[in-house]
Amino acid sequence: MEGSEEFMKYRSPLVSRYASKEMAYNFSDMKKFTAWRKLWIYLAKAEKALGLPISDAQIVEMESHAEDIDFAMAAEEERKLRHDVMAHVHTFAHCCPAAAPIIHLGATSCYVGDNTDLIMLRDGFDILLPKLARVIDRLANFAEKYADLPTLGFTHYQPAQLTTVGKRACLWLQDLAMDMRNLQRARDDLRFRGVKGTTGTQASFLQLFQGDHDKVEELDRLVTEMAGFKKSYLVTGQTYSRKVDVDSLSTLASLGATVHKICTDIRLLANLKEIEEPFEKEQIGSSAMPYKRNPMRAERCCSLARHLVALLANPLQTASVQWLERTLDDSANRRISLPESFLTADIILSTLQNITEGLVVYPKVIERHIRQELPFMATENIIMAMVKAGGNRQDCHEKIRVLSQLAGAVVKQEGGDNDLLARVQADPYFTPILGQLDAVLDPTTFVGRAPQQVSRFLSEEVRPLLEPYKAKMDVKIELEL
Predict the structure, then answer these.
(1) Is 156 a catalytic residue?
(2) Closest Cα to residue 107, out of 42, 29, 33?
(3) pLDDT digits (tens, 9 = 90+) for 150-202
(4) Contact (Cβ atoms closer than 8 angstroms) between residue 249 and residue 312
């Protein structure tokens, strides 16, 4: 059947099902091999500027063919030569006959391979950072809106003291803000491999420039600048240190852990019917149970975040087994682990942005859950009120203990509602404080400084973090699947 060939072989769902166009392009063959050609052009320009016999015509010829890559020819050359870089040198030389003698002059394969990887890592971070900023922005708006709404806190997933819906969102935001700083730091720490030669000694370039060390240093600086980097690594082996990959991917794995926690919380709250992710009018939750509203986007985030966290094992092991100046057992692994980490992070941020743009809160359900638990939590306040009214603390404690156990039995053994408040109201002992019970049981008096903490946290730590990304805030995410 025409056009069915693509369905006859494995396609990564990261690209075919989930990833954004910009991140899929960032790790594409087109981006990779045009970057190689640009790097050969930068090298030739810098070598020419420093006095090597390279003509303007050769540079112009290379520049005019920077993007018209004959992938079929490159594949055929690689089949013959068993070397991807030389295959592309030959392919480039074929359409640049005048420049052919000076393409890749003095360079090793890692000149194009590693420098392109660093460009892709940098550009990958530049795609992720605005997406993370938008997630933080949406959650900050959510936290601000619900800063005062009391809700049951949970420790051990058991009802604990009250917090607010907004304060809980700030727990998520704090982790995301740490990820923001980590990603920015990892991006800013990236340097260029530059022009270092086969074992990192720059020997071939020293030979080209007849022993002139200053020109070799200037060559490195010029190419680094043309590629858009402020610095290059002063020492490399044949490759840049694979700890750079560890630094980059560890920040993404840490982001994965954050997103997994946030989306797990959303899934738990969806079960309680307190908060739900957005749900389309025609969306089907279950093929068998028409009433279901499964948190499928949060589940997708958790599923992919797990993959993102697991990917960190690859660069850690790769960095630890790079023998001496380098060994090639990093190559196949990095072709998978580097793109997959960025693609996966990209998908979970897009999905989480979509979730946070449409989170649904059910205040009446939240209020009902508070009513079921608050009488137990308010027992200390009831005791204090009775003591102020002249009662004995120990007597009151015993009364409350007995009534609490009876109410607990109704809830747990009979499946009824918490009736502790009714029992307190019906017991003549508590007559002196009946008029105070509504005030004693007001949920807003149980949230401590949660609203104030939300306000201060958003103004001091969250909003300033978003300032550099203000121009990119308006993008909304519509999920295709």
Answers:
(1) yes
(2) 42
(3) 999 999 999 999 999 999 999 999 999 999 999 999 999 999 999 999 999 99
(4) yes
Q: Print burial letters for 336-363: b (CB count within 10 Å at least 16), e (below 16).
A: ebbbbbbbbbbbbbbbbbbbbbebebee
Q: What is the pLDDT of residues 418-474, one digit of tens each?
A: 888 899 899 999 988 888 888 888 999 999 999 999 999 999 999 999 999 999 999
Give 28-75 pLDDT, tens digit per residue: 999 999 999 999 999 999 999 999 999 999 999 999 999 999 999 999
Structure tokens at 169: 């969102």
A 10 A CB-CB count for 234 gives 10
Residue of 16, 55, 286, 320 marked catalytic: 286
pLDDT in tens, 352-401: 999 999 999 999 999 999 988 888 888 888 888 989 989 899 989 998 99
Work out the angle between the directed axes of helices 213-226 and 29-49 (0-180°, nearest 10).
140
Q: SS3 sequence, the chain?
A: CCCCHHHHCCCCHHHHHHCCHHHHHHCCHHHHHHHHHHHHHHHHHHHHHCCCCCCHHHHHHHHHCCCCCCHHHHHHHHHHHCCHHHHHHHHHHHHCCCCHHHCCCCCCHHHHHHHHHHHHHHHHHHHHHHHHHHHHHHHHHHHHHCCCCEEEEEECCEEEEEEEHHHHHHHHHHHHHHHHHHHHHHHHHCCECCCCCCCCCCHHHHHHCCCCHHHHHHHHHHHHHHCCCCCECCCCCCCCCCHHHHHHHHHHHHHHHHHHHHHHHHHHHHHHCCEECCCCCCCCCCCCCCCCCCCHHHHHHHHHHHHHHHHCHHHHHHHHCCCCCCCHHHHHHHHHHHHHHHHHHHHHHHHHHHHHCCCEECHHHHHHHHHHHHHHHCHHHHHHHHHHCCCCHHHHHHHHHHHHHHHHHHHHCCCCCCCHHHHHHHCHHHHHHHHHHHHHCCHHHHCCCHHHHHHHHHHHHHHHHHHHHHHHCCCCCCCCC
Judged against a pLDDT cut of 90, whether residue 478 lies above it is answered with no
Kindly give, in sequence order, each residue whose CB lies less than 8 Å from that of residue 40, ignoring residues fewer than 6 positions away. Answer: 62, 92, 103, 104, 107, 112
Q: What percent of the chain has pLDDT over 70?
A: 96
Q: Computed from CA positions of residues 334, 335, 337, 341, in that sequence, does the dihedral angle turn out positive or negative?
A: positive
What is the Cα–Cα distance from 459 to 465, expressed in whole angstroms? 10
| Paired tokens of 370 | 């508070």
Q: Which residue has the tokens 């105070």?
A: 436
Q: Which two tokens stand for residue 237?
A: 């082996």
